Amino acid sequence: MYCKQPAILAVVSLLLAVSHAFVPLVVSRNRQCRMHLEAEATTSKEKDEIIAVRVYVEGDVQGGYYRCCVVNEASKFRKLNGMMTNPDETDKAEIYVEGKRQFVDGFLRWCKKADKKIGMSQVVSVVKVVEEEPTGLYDSFYCKVKPEN
Fold first, then answer.
1. pLDDT digits (tens, 9 = 90+) for 119-149
2. What is the 3-state secondary structure (H, E, C) of the chain?
3. pLDDT tens digits for 80-117?
4. FRET label pair with 14: which of 24, 32, 71, 81, CA 20 to 30 Å apart?
């Protein structure tokens, strides 16, 4: 009996010492997990935030191919609302899109990727990107055309 009690006491004290060493590690790990989950929640809120962007592009924008690609990318693939118009007779166009941040960011990446080449001979580059307040005026994506004379 005398030999077993110190052994049990030693094992219990060892377990207590070990458990106290792991408690701060577990607490800090739980805190890290909680902070990570809070960061993910904030990020997902930002992704779902509705934003609006006006993109100014120049190049071969007068043709139907580029305009059709913009409409497809914005409305069908990214579910964005807005419009594309040719403000003047030059090779410049203006694209206004609004929607969830993650889709607008993807659309902007697509527009900037077009800096190389769109089709066989069309080259378009992004001149300027301006963030704006969403208006909510559009229920789809539209592409204005020049009136024929």
1. 657 778 889 999 999 998 999 998 876 655 5
2. CCCHHHHHHHHHHHHHHHHHHHHHHHHHHHHHHHHHHHHHHHHHHHHCCEEEEEEEEEECCCCHHHHHHHHHHHHHHCCCEEEEECCCCCCEEEEEEEEEHHHHHHHHHHHHHCCCCCCCCCCEEEEEEEEECCCCCCCCEEECCCCCC
3. 999 998 756 778 889 999 999 999 999 999 888 866 65
4. 32
CA gap 81, 97 in Å, rounded: 6
Q: Any idea which residue has 């003047």 for tokens? A: 88
**Cβ-Cβ contacts under 8 Å for 65 (sequence gap 6 or more):** 118, 119, 122
Q: Going by C-beta distance under 8 Å and a sequence separation of 6 or more, which residues neighbour residue 135?
A: 52, 98
pTM: 0.65
